[in-house]
Write a structure and sequence with these properties.
The protein is an alpha/beta fold and 220 residues long. The chain is built from 11 helices and 6 strands. α8 crosses α10 and α9 packs across α10.
């Protein structure tokens, strides 16, 4: 009798010790097989496209395309891949953006190993899983939306190009360098920066940089 086919997993996490710990935990499950590892957002997208795993465990704060942007692209390239977000972020904007971008589950990094394995099992069974610690956030956000309060803070309203500019500003690039990299004019870069400051109510480059770090666009 043929052995039961295992569920194929990819772990996308830039911290080596944590990634290796997750691999050891999940690979010990007889029904699971870790077929790939990714250390940044672009690598996660590549793994999704090339390996088409059954599930990807995805950190949100990674270099070279943060997890939220990677999530959207993973779902576009490999729609049958389930994505379970594993993160430290528990604020409303992260939770809702992840769900809007196609996350099938959302687990916090301070969860127990038993909760993580339960989340993996639930998502693979076609269920949506949310850590109990953030379930209240989701319910509160839903009730707020029913009262006409927007769920989407300024970050979620930014275009892909505005996020690119914000990321490059936070990484210390000058206006001229950003313009050359994105193939746009310096005046357009300045306009994007002004719009970012106005929309996010941030009034200095240092404030934009801190905000970009907080949102996972760049690492400290």
């Amino acid at each position: 009798m043929a052995a039961e086919q295992k569920h194929r997993l990819v772990i996308a996490e830039d911290h080596t010790i944590l990634r290796e710990g997750l691999k050891a935990l999940l690979a010990a499950r007889p029904e699971l097989e870790v077929v790939g590892e990714a250390t940044d957002g672009r690598d996660a997208i590549r793994c999704a496209e090339e390996l088409t795993p059954d599930l990807m465990l995805l950190d949100l704060s990674m270099p070279r395309s943060n997890g939220l942007e990677a999530l959207k692209e993973i779902k576009r390239l490999s729609p049958n891949t389930k994505v379970l977000v594993l993160t430290v972020h528990k604020t409303e904007d992260y939770v809702f953006t992840a769900l809007q971008n196609g996350a099938d589950g959302y687990v916090l990094k301070d969860s127990s190993s038993s909760e993580l394995t339960m989340a993996v099992r639930s998502v693979l069974n076609g269920e949506r899983y949310l850590s109990p610690a953030i379930a209240t956030t989701v319910v509160s956000g839903y009730l707020s939306s029913k009262d006409g309060i927007s769920l989407k803070p300024g970050f979620d309203d930014l275009s892909s190009r505005e996020r690119e500019v914000l990321k490059l500003i936070a990484e210390g690039y000058r206006t001229k360098d950003i313009a050359e990299y994105l193939c746009i004019s310096p005046k357009t870069v300045e306009k994007h920066r002004a719009n970012l400051m106005d929309r996010l109510n941030l009034h200095s480059v240092s404030a934009l940089t801190a905000y970009a770090i907080e949102k996972g666009l760049v690492t400290k």
